[in-house]
Amino acid sequence: MTSLALIRHGPTVWNEQKRLQGQADIPLSPDGRKRVQGWKVPAEFSKFKWFASPLTRARQTAELLGLTVETEPAIIEMDWGDWEGQTGADLREKYGDEFIRRQKMGIDLRPDGGESPRDVRDRVGKWVSHICTTGESTGAVAHQGIIRAMVSLATGWNMINPPPEKMDWEAVQLFSMKPDGSVEIDHLNISLIADDG
Q1: Of residues 114, 191, 104, 189, the one with CA closest to residue 151
Q2: Is the pTM of the predicted complex or chain greater than 0.90?
Q3: Residues 144-171 pLDDT 10s
Q4: Is residue 97 part of a domain?
Q5: Which DSSP state fits 28?
Q6: For a designed S-S bond to 22, which of 15, 65, 84, 181 qualifies (C-beta 3.0 to 4.6 A apart)?
């Protein structure tokens, strides 16, 4: 089994405003930088090979965590297309009942001009299969959509219902990958808060 540890980037202004961020290259907010400065990657992950999404917010998070990373395009956030920068209220006003119908599609929701969570899961799955061929314990600083894709790969979660476990976004999410590329949850919500117990 090969281990994969995932960390979501720190907060941005768009996160704070509850805007869909997607592949828009929004940096960490001042508060986000401060929050990440209070994080520490547990020692058990110090020997992992680390990657980061190409987006600034992920690379800034990795740098603040003291991680040496390679950029990995496969773990860029979901492309929200024409919906990027919008809030849920904006989209409900624009689309009305159509927005609610699309939300209920879960993993097959497709924003105008964007990709679906299933598309994201497919590209993450290909990356996972590649990691399995190396057998190297791997870590990545990525995005909520990437971590959700991994949970879906591991559990079959269709993203219509709430996730099987509540996710702490100031934590490491650890997965195990078998040689055939299949994924299991190893341990979720391993705290990054430096002063936690």
Answers
A1: 189
A2: yes
A3: 999 999 999 999 999 998 999 899 999 9
A4: yes
A5: B
A6: 84
Choosing from 77, 84, 115, 143, the catalytic residue is 77
Domain that holds residue 147: 2-191
Determine whether 9 is an active site residue.
yes
Residue 10 lies in a domain: yes
Question: Of residues 9, 72, 115, 143, which has the active-site annotation?
Answer: 9
pLDDT of residue 195: 67
Give per-residue pLDDT as tens, 103-150. Answer: 899 999 999 999 999 999 999 999 999 999 888 999 999 999 999 999
> For the sheet containing 2-8, what is the strand order?
69-71, 49-52, 138-142, 2-8, 171-177, 183-191
Quick check: 197 pLDDT over 70? no
Looking at residue 44, which CATH number applies to its domain? 3.40.50.1240
